[in-house]
Design a protein that fits this description.
The chain has about 60 residues and is mainly beta. It contains no helices and eight strands. The protein has one domain. The strands form three sheets. It has a three-stranded antiparallel β-sheet with strand order 2-1-8, with no helix packed on it. Strands 3-4-5 form a three-stranded antiparallel β-sheet, with no helix packed on it. Strands 6-7 form a two-stranded antiparallel sheet. The mean pLDDT is about 90.
């Protein structure tokens, strides 16, 4: 299970599921053309992805 945690306040988010199939979204890191990275939560069944959660104005981190 991907557990996203805010490094500032400690708030955490547990299971995020796909609205199409109900599968748990998995954490993935994408590399942009400029070499930077973006954290996303992706449907393992190919229904798409969302940017990972934010809290306190910054991306929450995931240890997965």
């Amino acid at each position: 299970m991907a557990l996203y945690t805010c490094p500032t306040c400690g708030m955490s988010v547990g299971i995020i599921t796909c609205g199409n199939c109900g599968a748990e979204l998995v954490h993935e890191t994408l590399t942009k053309d400029d070499g930077g990275t973006v954290h996303v939560s992706k449907c393992p069944n190919g229904h798409g992805m969302i940017k990972s959660p934010q809290c306190c104005g910054q991306d929450m981190t995931c240890a997965v």
